[in-house]
Amino acid sequence: MTRFILQRLAFGAVVLLVLSSFVFFLFFVAPGDPARMIAGDKATEAQLQQIRTNLGVDRPMIEQYATFIGRAVQGDLGYSYRNRQPVAEIIVRRIPATLSLVIGAVVLWLAIGIPIGLMSARHPGSLRDRLGQAFILVGLSFPTFVLGMMSLYLLYFLPKQAGFTLFPAGGYKAFSRDPLIWAWHLALPWTTLALTMAAFYARLTRGQMLDVMGEDYIRTARAKGLSERKVVWKHGMRAALTPLVTQLGADIALLLGGAIVIEQVYGLQGVGALAVQAVNNQDRPIIIGVVLLGGLFIVTANIVVDLFYVLLDPRIR
Amino acid sequence: MPILQVDGLTVEIPTEDGTVHAVRDVSFSIRQGELFGIAGESGSGKSVLTQAILGLLPTAEISGKVLFDGRDLIGLPQDELRRLRGKDIGMIFQDPLSSLHPFYTIGAQIAEVLHTHETISRQDARARVVEMLGKVGIPDAASRYDDYPHQFSGGMRQRVMIAMALIMRPALLIADEPTTALDVTVQEQIVALIDEMRREFGTTVILITHDLGLLASVADDVMVMYAGHRMEYGPAANLFRAPAHPYTAGLLRSSPANYSPGADLQPITGRPPSLLELRNACVFAPRCAEALPACASATPPLRVFDDKTQSLCWLPDGARRQPATEPAARVHAAAAATVAAPVVEARDVRLTYTIGSFLGHKRQHEVLKGIDLTVHRGETVGLVGESGCGKSTLARVIAGLAPATGGTVSLLGRDLTSLDRAEWRQMRREVQLVFQDPFGSLNPRRRVGSIIGDPFRLHGVAAGDARKDKVRQLMELVGLNPEHYNRFPSEFSGGQRQRIGIARALALNPSLIICDEPVSALDVSIQAQVLNLLRGLQRDLGLTYLFISHDLSVVRHVCNRIAVMQGGKIVELADSETLFAHPQHPYTRTLLAAGKTPPQMTGERVRNLMPTTEVGP
Lengths: 317, 617
Hints:
The structure holds 2 protein chains of 2 kinds.
Chain A: H1 2-29, H2 34-39, H3 45-55, H4 61-72, H5 87-122, H6 127-141, H7 144-162, H8 179-213, H9 216-223, H10 228-256, H11 260-265, H12 271-281, H13 284-312
Helix pairs in contact in A: 1-13, 5-6, 5-8, 5-10, 5-13, 6-8, 7-8, 8-10, 9-10, 10-13, 12-13
Chain B: E1 4-15, E2 18-30, E3 35-39, H1 46-53, E4 61-68, E5 71-72, H2 78-84, E6 89-92, H3 96-99, H4 106-117, H5 122-135, H6 141-144, H7 154-166, E7 172-176, H8 184-201, E8 204-209, H9 212-218, E9 221-226, E10 229-235, H10 236-241, H11 246-254, E11 302-304, E12 310-312, H12 333-337, E13 342-355, E14 363-376, E15 380-384, H13 391-398, E16 406-411, E17 414-415, H14 421-430, E18 431-434, H15 448-458, H16 464-477, H17 494-506, E19 512-516, H18 524-541, E20 545-549, H19 552-558, E21 561-566, E22 569-575, H20 576-581, H21 586-594
Parallel strand pairs in B: 3-8, 3-9, 6-7, 7-8, 15-20, 15-21, 18-19, 19-20
Antiparallel strand pairs in B: 1-2, 1-4, 4-5, 9-10, 10-12, 11-12, 13-14, 13-16, 16-17, 21-22
Helix pairs in contact in B: 4-5, 4-7, 5-7, 7-8, 8-21, 15-16, 15-17, 16-17, 17-18
């Protein structure tokens, strides 16, 4: 078991290394002079040269990469070209907003998606199944930003015009200051993100449960005289869980790396919004930092999912 | 009082295609402590019948009367049926691996039955489970309580299922094909265990199976079902010795065990009817060799005989029964084989797999441990053994699909390892395979014409209309209608699909056809048709077969010589008759002793029709 974990960790480290070199060299060959960007159009050649020396971008490529990696493993991702603040610090400041958004949305979409999928799968072809499938179709068809705009219009703008505030337009308020205010501000982003994902998870749950409920061991469970609730939850859901966990791991990791659209729509200062700003500003150290953070989340999520597999399925122990 | 009395049970299942009339007006009664057999081929309604009784088919419409211990189960609320299941009626199923939940320990799964039906502490439940596991023959039961199903062998898993079904000491045990997925020797142990438990607990047993030999050996009363109807019903001894219904007689005639080896089987022709339509006629009439004019136009009456057998048939005296035919003039392959040239020669063939990922530690797994086998032109060599003995692997090695890691395989005198690419392609024409699963081994999205024509295309033998003609000839040869050239595999029945596989194998006139369990997925009556086809083709075309099977009566029937495999080795190789008459190796003797065959039919008149006013519906 320890051996397995160590193997996975080593493999994850290799993936991150490959990712970092890929991103680094990609930006190295990209056009654009960082010195010119920092100093502005009026800077003299001497000033530009001075900036290049300070940044270290006039050194040979390999040397720059080695320095970058050497610092990165110590948590030092360099400084923003824009405001000279440490990249790591900037990113860490953005994490609470993204984390709050993702955690709340995950809880919400699981709470909506799994019961709908279950209900659909347990009575295939029935009215309930068709309602469930309609939800799935609608949920998957709406792009997040349309859903976001619609909810902003209906739940923020219209009430505002009528003279009262139902929900705020967005923005992030820290949990530590007031959990209620925090939740109130995140309610719309949570719902928007969760609805699309819930449709996706309902479809996944439905498909899994339809397969599982046709298995022989479900017939055995019924032949034992178990109540239908036990048959579905203890025997059915337990077996349908593994693929759900896999998908959930990947989705959480992806969103933690930046829920770009949602953060833009609701003006949440999260990692996704940071990535957009960094790209607009050509702020290379920050872009690299955000990409590495996303990679780190995905690698970690994969390791966690693998460990869950071992816990969930005795056959691969 | 009978423990279970069923009167006029009818089960209809609504589906997208229409209503499936799965069970039609079936009646029977089972005495306390009896072992009641239900026989029938797939689609006969034998499993549906029992599941419907227990409320396991929620969508089915069920009518009739089912008295269990005096209480009518039909129309009972689902909640009361649920309380009966597991407590008063236990069930075991065909495949013990898929019937056990892979993620829970076997102990927990059995204890769950106790916790569902009574209030019991965890410790007490555990103690009772361990005791029960010991009773069904799980060695070291206490320590195996916390093991998962995948850690048990097939036979042990079925023992676990039996323990689960019997832990509440139910009055009735329904065993639905409990031995079909198991090896012969294990089958025997499981049947013996069921019988022993029945005697110990006084449990009444319903044994559902397609295996007539098995029923003949253990059942008290037997019911034979076909297309949802109860064709024949009566004491097992009378019914199998002297079947009254032509269908029962046909089933027995389809079993190679009822023939002298080498004789042509007399299979039931045609295939089972669709269950979607109801007709005012005997369901078996289209396939019945003895059908009278009345059979096709009116539902048959119930004939009751003085030896307690009953038959749903127009024939007043019951079916014509002839004992097994005289051995037909045998293809003189056995004699010729000694002089004929060898097609395949395997010398000390070994195959070792290395298991383990490229990061994990590696293990060696030896599948074939030095096989010597020669197949001569024109003969059929049987390869018999239990699952995991390496017989299919050996077939793959001989077919050149898996390279041996040691020893040599030579085909027509050429060593397989010494071939270059062109010679390899040539060799591929010489060895063809027919597989077990006629459903899984044909691409469902390709038309039958192109499946059979593939060998011609791949080897550039014929194209265009020439290829089409050849394919049609092949279809004719294997008994398929050439007009079905453009159909998809799903439009054919299991037996017909196996014919497609055989036609494809025949296409390039191979020197050797390897049949890997070619009939084990088929019903007995269809199985006989395919066996006859294989034998006929051999007679006409001088084919050479390597025939792999776990069914000894089939192997004995078609093979000149038989090789018995165990643990990657051939432990005995002899002429079929010598092997059956004088088995040398202890394992061969175990195999032979385990195989159950139905009793021989008698030709004499054994019963009289009872005067009765009862006429079938």
